[in-house]
Amino acid sequence: MALVELKDVGKVYGKRWVALADITFSVDEGEFVFLVGPSGAGKTTLLKLLLAQEKPDSGQIRVAGFDLTKIKKEQIPLLRRKIGAIFQDFKLLPDMTAWENVAFALRVCGYPRKLIKSRTDELLALVGLLHKAKSYPNELSGGEQQRVAIARALVHSPVLLLADEPTGNLDPHSTDEIIQLLLDINRQGTAVIMATHDMEIVERFGFRVLELADGYLVGDRKTNIGGGNLS
């Protein structure tokens, strides 16, 4: 069943910059998809559209049952509880510990204190960082910061995880750890759309690849190499 559907989607900034044009594709529940293309190809713009951070200028977008071309402002928080998002620069709050960064995402939604504690502990354990719960972001490595960001993105058990260049600032070892974590999350049923320019990562797995160039979707294929070997 399609979790994400785009039909003839276009996005233009100003009068001349066509960020996206005629984008049509769908992503099924539980699918893992790589979104590739050079800088400026439209990857980040596409992810912003899926998060309802931007609205398309043309076409139709449906995500997790929401029509994003008609979505009302008060519906956007409901949409984002179904979507987790992680970024290249982690976006952690620097004056909060790892535990507080994850708990904050629950606190702002009004969850009771007992549930916040149990869920935050559970997620930090899932990403292997419960022992770093009291550490601040500047006391964590890049890979550890990204794992905290992943834990935060999972607080509402999203059906879709968007990852915008999540390994772009990481060393090879940390990159492998983050990819493995994303694979584990996907195996548990969460669909993943990962934007990356690192084709070495993409070619390790037999997953679907959507390729953007100059705002157009120029490829929709599966890689030939499968098995997900991280060694």
Secondary structure layout plus pairing:
Blueprint: E1 2-13, E2 17-28, E3 32-36, H1 43-50, E4 58-63, E5 66-67, H2 76-80, E6 83-87, H3 98-107, H4 113-126, H5 142-153, E7 160-164, H6 172-187, E8 191-196, H7 199-202, E9 208-213, E10 216-222
Parallel strand pairs: 3-8, 3-9, 6-7, 7-8
Antiparallel strand pairs: 1-2, 1-4, 4-5, 9-10
Describe this structure in words.
The chain has 231 residues and is of the alpha/beta class. The chain has a single domain (2-222), classed as 3-Layer(aba) Sandwich (Rossmann fold). The strands form 2 sheets. The protein has a 6-stranded mixed sheet with strand order 6-7-8-3-9-10, sandwiched between helices. A 4-stranded antiparallel sheet has the order 2-1-4-5, with helices on one face. The two termini are 33 Å apart. The protein has helices at residues 43-50, 76-80, 98-107, 113-126, 142-153, 172-187, 199-202, and strands at 2-13, 17-28, 32-36, 58-63, 66-67, 83-87, 160-164, 191-196, 208-213, 216-222. The model has no long low-confidence stretch (mean pLDDT 93). It contains 7 helices and 10 strands.
Features:
six-stranded mixed sheet, alpha/beta, Rossmann fold, single chain
Low-confidence stretches: none
Average pLDDT, all residues: 93
Roughly how much helix do the residues carry, as a percent range? 25-40%
- The structure class reads alpha/beta
State the distance separating the first and last CA atoms. 33 Å
Taking Cα atoms only, what radius of gyration do you get, to the nearest Å? 18 Å
How many beta-strand segments?
10
Q: What is the CATH topology descriptor?
A: Rossmann fold
CATH superfamily: P-loop containing nucleotide triphosphate hydrolases
* Shape assignment: globular
Largest sheet: 6 strands, mixed
Gross CATH architecture:
3-Layer(aba) Sandwich
